[in-house]
Amino acid sequence: EHPIGVALTLRHSVAQKWIPRQNQTYLYPNSGGVAPARDLPTYPRVLQLFEFQQAQERSGATINLDYKLSNQTTVYLYNQYTYFDGHDFIRDVSFTATTPAAGFNPGAVTANVGAISVGSDNTRKFGDTYNFNPGVKHRFGPWRIDYDGYYSFSVNHYDDPAPHWRSTSYALTGVSYRLENTGGTQPVKLTQLGGANYLDLNNYSALTQGTDRRYGTDEFHGFKANVRRDFATRWPLTLQGGARYRRQERTTRNRAQSFTFVGRDGIAGNADDRTLGQFADTNFGSYQAFGFPVA
Q: Residue 292 above 70 pLDDT?
């Protein structure tokens, strides 16, 4: 008899999640190693709010073949394929209180003078991996002889942002505001106290956009062999020796681009840059937290 064994496995999964998060940073003055008091009159504070949405899809298949040539020898071929496709959509807003109101409260902050930075990104990672592993097993009494080879090839794409997108950020300066419910699990409440209207995209400047398209391949191939001898002595004894060869070849490419809007006069950082309304995203509209405009 020459029995053959076949095992086939198929798998597919889809996962989605939404993760809100906030980070607070306090810039304490140098106090000579003494812990600053809670009633310090003023020091800069930064609050960063994230909305992180993630969608992932995984698929794969394995097929394993075993063929018994004789009672002493078995040959096998193991094959595996996996596919991954993941999207991360990130929206973030940073509030920098450069001149906070006097006093300290971990659950709220009032900025007499501050700045707001708005950003968004949509990244995608996807790729395929193939694995092939043929081998032979011999069993001759107390002797065991195994040898196999393997080959693996994977292709990965890192699109930051995803096709037809650019990571984007822009800022609004010279504003005053109050934030409540900071440092907790409740939604942060924003009240603008002064300065240019944060809902108007034309009041923002420092528009930057970027792309980071990375592509890479990994190729492995190798061989290994093992010889084992069991001795049926009073104290069980086994001797084993072997050799292994492994080689990896990797190829990477990175096509990065960065753009800064400089307005009609070609100079960045002046009032001429405050014409971002022409870049308003009509598809997402006010998709940011607190209704911040989207460019």
A: yes
CB 245 within 8 A of CB 212: no
Q: Sorting pLDDT into bands at 50, 70 and 90, what band is 185?
A: confident
Angle CA(205)–CA(210)–CA(213) in degrees, nearest 5? Answer: 170
Distance (Å, whole) CA 165 – CA 168? 9
Nearest-angstrom CA–CA distance, 1 and 272? 85
DSSP code string of 196-247: S-TT-GGG-EEEEEEEEEEEEEEEEEEEEEEEEEEE-SSS-EEEEEEEEEEE
* Cross-strand bridge partners of residue 224: 148, 244
Tell me how far apart the alpha carbons of residues 124 and 89 are, in angstroms, rounded to a whole number.
Answer: 9
SS3 call for 285:
coil
Residues 206, 115: Cα–Cα separation, whole Å: 12
- The pTM of this model reads 0.71
